[in-house]
Amino acid sequence: MSKSAVTSAFLAALVLVVGLWYVKQGDFNDLSPKKVTHNEQQLIGRYYEGQVDDKALTALMDTMYKQSITGEYTGEMVVYYFGDPDTTSSDIKVFVGIDYELLPQPLPEGLEELQIETYKSVFVDVDPSDMFSPNPQNVNKTLREYAIKEGLKSRNIYIEKYLKSGEVRNELAVE
After folding, report:
1. How far apart, in whole angstroms, are the C-alpha atoms of residue 128 and residue 142?
2. For the residues 89-115, what does the mean pLDDT come to?
C-alpha cells in the first residue's frame, strides 16, 4: 500500500471518529432553554441515595417508568436530583416518582409522597430517540450557562420529566 493511500485512509478514519464523537456529544442539536414557573406538584415514588451511575437507581427509574406508561399509575415520571447529577464522585439524593394532580389515598404500598412548592426553572425538551440527541451533561451545562446569562441563581435541583410525547424535559430549578 502506498504512503498516500495509508495517509488517506488514516485521515478518513480520523474524520469518521471525530464526526461520531461530535454526534455523540449532541452538538448538532440547538438547545434553546426557556424559563417557566411551575405550580405546586404532588409526586408519589421512592427516594434513592447513592451514586448516579448505580444500577439500583437505574432499576428504580425503569420500574417507575414502566408503571407510568402501562397505566398502573397515571401521570408522567419525574426524577428530582437534589444536587448535580453530573457529579459522580459523591452520593446524591434522588426522588423518582409520578406526577399526580390528586394523590391516591391511601398511597400505594412502598411509595412515598413528595410535595413540591411553586418554583421557577429553566428547561429544554430533548427527544432521546433523535440520533443527534445531546448527552445529559451537555444539556445540564447549557441550562447552567443559560441561568447565569439570565442572572438567575441555581437552586442545584435538576429535574427530568418523561413526557407522554416521548420527550424528556430537563430542568434546572432557579431563584
Report:
1. 17
2. 87
